[in-house]
Amino acid sequence: MSREEAIQLAQIYLAQEDQNHPLALDKLRMLNSPTEYGGYWYFDYRYHHPDKLPDESRDMIGGAPGFVIAKHGKQIRVITWNELYELNQVPIQF
User: How many CA atoms lie less than 13 Å away from 37 in the CB half-sphere?
Assistant: First the structure.
């Protein structure tokens, strides 16, 4: 799968997430540039906070760091912080 195909799939995935699991009104999902790891494309979760949100509140989002798209099979899966750390060393199982 090419980088461009991964970006298209990620855009579709984020649009579906926006519909199925909308964020609070003070946060907007944004697509980040992918990172290639072996058989996967990794995307960080990125959020836009409108200027009205105080700076100290902007860093209070926790949870999963991002998601991967398998190059073969095109499955999308949210990964944990530990999986992100190990991404270069151990293949992720779908």
Answer: 21
Query: Which CATH number characterizes residue 63's domain?
Result: 3.10.450
- Whole-number percent of the chain with pLDDT over 90: 35
The DSSP result for 7-53, as a single string, is HHHHHHHHHHHHHHSPPPTT-EEE----EEETTEEEEE-EEE--TTS
Give the pLDDT of residue 28.
67
Residue 67 CA: distances (Å) to CA of 6, 14, 25, 26, 41:
11, 10, 22, 22, 8
Q: Is 78 helix (H, G, I), strand (E, B) or coil?
A: strand
- Residue 33, in any domain of the structure: yes
- Residue 25 placed within a domain: yes
> Does residue 68 lie within any of the structural domains?
yes
Of the candidates 14, 18, 16, which has an alpha carbon nearest to the alpha carbon of residue 44?
14
Name the domain count of the chain: 1
